[in-house]
Amino acid sequence: MRSVLFVDPPAFCTSLEGLAAPALRTRPLAVAPPGADRATILALSAEARLAGLKQGMPVRTAQRLCPDLIVLPPNPRLYARASRALHEILRIYAPTIEPQGYGHAFLDLTGTGRLFGPPQDVATRLRHEISERLGLSVSVGIATNKLVSQAAIKAGRRGRGEAGAALRPIRRRTGVSCPSSTRGIARARPLHAHSAGGLPAGPHR
After folding, report:
1. Domain count along the chain
2. Would you say 42 and 185 are in contact if contact means Cβ atoms under 8 Å apart?
3. Which CATH number do you get for residue 42?
């Protein structure tokens, strides 16, 4: 049976901005293209979400709703550098990694049980290592395919359910993540699977 993990760092871009500038950590943050009259928000911090802002909202509307909002331009170099560091940690445990834009990734742990133990143990170690080494919290979905592992996080499951399981972040941060696609942030080379084959897109038969 396959074991697929989906690693999802909540509010990835704005969390990185807070790590780079600690004074911003408790402020409502948004990432949006600069200088565009009709610019829309690409990413939000937890504080901005609590103020009622949403991803995709026009910046002008967001600023009216939250006068204290700090709007930052996208920083693709920072996001890419942090993504590489996070993915290097993931590669310790998985022979197959499929990045999904900034920070997010699928891992195929099939056949690694003798080395690292069950997927739940790997997920717990990943959360701790990423927190200690990068200062980021992550959610981890566990299932037999990509679709369900991603859905497990979205459903916010705390334990093993009928189709999969999700482990929540060590430090709960409510907020949207940086878009898993690089579209709208920067024109960059597509991220491909770091293996000869991809991960299963649907239920394993």
Report:
1. 1
2. yes
3. 3.40.1170.60
